[in-house]
Amino acid sequence: PCSGAFAVVVTSAERARALPHPPVYVLGVGGPASRREGIWNADDDITLQGVAANSYTVSVNAGPAVLFVGSNAVTLNGLSGDDDLDVDVNVASLAVAITVKGGLPTASGGDILTVTGVDGAAGDAPTFTPTDFDAGTVVTAGVTITFDEVELVDYDGEADDETLTIDGTIADDVFRYVPAATADAGSVQVS
After folding, report:
1. What confidence category does residue 51 fall into, taking pLDDT thresholds of 50, 70 and 90?
2. pLDDT at 107
3. C-alpha span between 116 and 104 (Å, rounded)
4. Which of the residues 29, 98, 103, 152 could staple to 145 if both were Cys, CB 3.0 to 4.6 A apart?
5. What is the DSSP letter of 81?
């Protein structure tokens, strides 16, 4: 597949009984003309937005948003390049397990995962848990986003006066907080 692909696995018991195995849908950008233009493993923008329980849209590189209904798991795969992977939970009842794989970065900065909670929901309870220098989980509004090969994670609380919890690892961690100009901004580095 080309850079900017994602896969959706439908695992409901009813669908699994009707089919020999759960289907996997893969959508990517590009075609013969695009491949010749060299967008393979390029810097991609992949956006997932929750719309209802087990329903979300995904768009790749400003392409059309494809709606998935009845899905409880999705993997966003950036492959190589410095990818922007945006996950907007958007609804408290999303109930979708989200996996983000950034892939190998280029030299200019790496993959960025931006997670946005539910607007107006002060109960998002965002928690960031690193499991390696480029892997971990972000849980917000009950949705778990598991990521790997991602160099930067950004959480957008949408000015909902939330408290972001950052868990340490079993190692001796160093937390570095750099405040920004406003009370709801800044950065934290865990090493």
Report:
1. very high
2. 65
3. 24
4. 98
5. S
